[in-house]
Amino acid sequence: MIDAATFLKCIAVSLVWGATNPFINAAAKKAKEGSIVDKGKKIMVPYAVNQLGSILFYLLLSSNSLLVGPIVNAMTQSFTFIFGYLFFGERYNNNFRVVLGSACIFAGVGICSQASNTNLA
Fold first, then answer.
1. How far is the C-alpha of 59 from the C-alpha of 61, rounded, in Å?
2. Section 72-88 average pLDDT
3. What membrane topology was assigned to this protein in its record (predicted)?
4. Which of the ends of the chain has fewer CB neighbours closer than 10 A, N or C?
5. What is the pTM of this model?
6. Read out DSSP for the chain?
């Protein structure tokens, strides 16, 4: 089981990754026009922030259980959906399926978390 401080760090990393993923996608679409320098400028800032999230994730993994990996990845998927929906108007054919899929991911991570705490000897 992870403590509250570690869980808040997981949320922070997930938020950074989840927020920057739609921005990188939008910047890549806009970068199709213009010179190579213009393309690099449009993508550089969201990519740099995303890489900051990767550094934070590495630091988080170095001092905690490997269980934080699936937790961060599950939350990142949800934050990516939320930010894409709110700021970029990304829509899916069936939002219910996206929410159901996220719920299944969280349930699976919860089951794995609980199983890692159970003494199977």
1. 5
2. 90
3. Multi-pass membrane protein
4. C
5. 0.80
6. ---HHHHHHHHHHHHHHHHHHHHHHHHHHHTTSS-HHHHHHHHHHHHHHHHHHHHHHHHHHHTS-TTHHHHHHHHHHHHHHHHHHHHH----S-HHHHHHHHHHHHHHHHHHHHHHHS---
119: tokens are 């003494």
Angle 30-36-39 from CA coordinates, rounded to 5°: 25
The stretch 56-61 carries a mean pLDDT of 95
Determine how many CB atoms are found less than 10 A away from the CB of residue 41.
13
pLDDT of residue 40: 74
Range 59-81 burial, b when 16+ CB lie within 10 A, else e: ebeeebeebbebbbbbbbbbbbb
**Hey, what amino acid is at 87?**
F
- Residue 63 CA to residue 34 CA, distance in Å, equals 43
pLDDT at 70: 86
Query: Which tokens hold the place of 105?
Result: 């991911």
The pLDDT value recorded for residue 10 is 92
